[in-house]
Write a structure and sequence with these properties.
The protein has 2 domains: about 30-55, no CATH class; about 60-280, 2-enoyl-CoA Hydratase, Chain A, domain 1, CATH 3.90.226. It is built from 11 helices and 9 strands. The protein has helices at about 5-15, 40-45, 60-65, 95-105, 140-155, 170-175, 180-190, 230-240, 250-255, 270-280, 310-315, and strands at about 25-30, 35, 70-75, 110-115, 120-125, 160-165, 195-205, 220, 260. Strands 3-4-5-6-7-8-9 form a 7-stranded mixed beta sheet, sandwiched between helices. A two-stranded antiparallel sheet has the order 1-2. A hairpin with a 2-residue loop joins strand 4 and strand 5 (about 120-125). Helix 5 (about 140-155) runs parallel beside helix 7. The model is unreliable at about 285-305 (pLDDT under 50).
């Protein structure tokens, strides 16, 4: 055995070789420019620790943080015709679908899951912006409707996380028809007497904001989310006026009555659970270490069900 060839030379080569560093090892905060280690960002639910900037989060990652113990069951979704219009622009639509399925690791832009938050059984529908900008096509429309049907059949509240640039142009009128179809599904849930909570994430635009995303019983927005129909630049060019600062941002919409509350991502689970207990008249979550809740003193701002902001949103 030649120990110089078999041992020494490979050892020296490994020490001198250039190490490959992953491209996404550090991620830049869009708001402050700060570089954040991607593992720290992932552990913090993709919220930049120093600035609080809410970055986009993948649908399955969101579900893992949202449900109790990260446990949930995906709902089987209906299959639809692939590329019904035989659409082609710079590349074939079927090729775009294959690329996005590999990138997003989902069949389309919407997934539906069943699970529990703080012991309350719910159905959650999540749009993934990583799949063609969360655009609404036939598959996404069928998935959203399936979520409503599942909630009605199992008597569960439905929580929908919207993230979309609007309708999917590669499916033309077939995409636009999902707007009235999903709106009918919302009405079916309300006729069944079940709560429907919408969480508006960045961005929620186009036909999505003109249909099911703005028809909830309560509308919650993540901080800084862009929410609207047409883009701000298009509006400025149309009306030939400068728009106010923060126009179409979550905080601006809450000030003008379009959103009930703006809630940071880490607080969404507890806030939604509180809202659902109010809307379903479920018993309040027991406080660890206490046998029974002490009666509230006169003049206290909040009761056992939640803070005053939550109460105001429900009774508005």
């Amino acid at each position: 055995m030649n120990w110089i060839t078999n041992y020494v030379r490979p050892k020296i080569s490994s020490l001198l070789a250039t190490r490959q560093v992953p491209d996404n090892l550090w991620i830049k905060c869009p708001e402050t420019g700060e570089m954040v280690f991607h593992k720290d960002l992932e552990a913090n639910q993709w919220v930049v620790p120093s600035s609080g900037f809410h970055m986009r989060i993948r649908a399955k990652d969101r579900l893992g943080h949202f449900f109790d113990d990260g446990a949930y069951d995906l709902v089987d979704l209906p299959s639809v015709a692939v590329d019904p219009l035989k659409f082609r622009d710079q590349k074939r639509y079927v090729d775009r679908l294959k690329e996005n399925r590999a990138k997003a690791e989902t069949d389309d832009a919407v997934i539906v899951a069943k699970g529990a938050i703080e012991g309350l059984d719910i159905v959650a529908t999540v749009q993934d912006f990583a799949f063609m900008g969360g655009s609404l096509g036939m598959a996404a429309g069928e998935a959203i409707i399936k979520g409503f049907e599942t909630a009605i059949a199992e008597r569960r509240p439905l929580v929908l996380f919207s993230a979309s640039g609007g309708a999917r142009m590669q499916e033309g009128i077939l995409s636009l028809m999902q707007l009235p179809r999903t709106t009918v599904a919302v009405e079916m849930l309300k006729e069944a007497g079940l709560p429907y909570i919408v969480v508006l994430t960045n961005p929620t635009a186009g036909g999505v904001s003109a249909s099911y995303a703005m028809l909830g019983d309560v509308h919650i927005a993540e901080p800084g989310a862009v929410i609207g129909f047409a883009g701000a630049r298009v509006i400025e060019q149309t009306i030939r006026e400068k728009l106010p600062d923060g126009f179409q941002r979550a905080e601006y919409l809450m000030e003008h009555g379009m959103v009930d509350m703006v809630v940071p991502r880490h607080q969404l689970k507890s806030r939604i659970a509180t809202l659902l207990r109010l809307l379903t008249k479920a018993p309040a979550e027991p406080i660890a270490g206490l046998i029974a809740a002490e009666p509230a003193e006169p003049g206290e701002a909040a009761d056992a069900h939640g803070d005053s902001e939550t109460q105001a949103a429900v009774h508005a």
